[in-house]
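Running this now, will post back.
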Amino acid sequence: NKILLSKHPSKYLKLMAKIGVLKIVLPELDACRRVKQDDRYHKWDVFTHCVYTADNSEPDLVLRLAGLLHDIGKPEVRELREMGKGEDVRTTFHKHEMVGARLADKALTRLRYSTTIKEAVLKLVQNHMYHYLGDVYYCTSSEPHCSWKKAAVRTTKIPTECPKCGDKVILKNGWTDSAIRKFIDKMGITRSNLDNLDSIPLFKLRSAERQGNGHKIIPVTDRQKDFQKRIKEVFEAGSAFTVADLAI
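Update: finished.
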């Protein structure tokens, strides 16, 4: 715990791995060493990404544990897939969050963490792969060379034609209000959180994960900002999420 709450946990976790202590204390994390990821999304192997995610999390035990354990399911599900004829082989980790939650449960139980801490960490590990889709403008051209698209949240003026080929542009909708409501209910977001959605533990983990992947230096993307804006809008629409929200 002292290591996790230190200024740079990665310094000591790397030392533990080097001298063989990590393999005894936390073999689930040690198994992530030298597990290569897709270079387009991650600069580091799984182990290095995990310890750097912990570094970029605020010094809270639940957040640091979640950052450290969020990707420990990757070694078990790692696959190399050919995406199509003539295309590069991609490294995938399908459903690693589910495997990771199982392994994290085993590790935290073995290390005798409290039920409260364990449940909070498992919830973050299991849900860290949420993939919010906002509205996107697409070019309708069937030409293979034209694949123009742009997120609506990044568009100041509604496009009527593709700036690349001049063809018609359509808007494809992302998450519906119903999907937003399900997420709110699943993560236990309340009206009291609306003034500071950045403080939601899951969103804090996502920010730390981005900073710990070696490529992305922006902790909060435009897509994430749009997601949080949608959450506020759904709440303001007057939907009741709990008994306390009912008019009667």
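The beta strands are 79-82, 89-92, 136-139, 149-151, 169-172. More later if anyone needs it.
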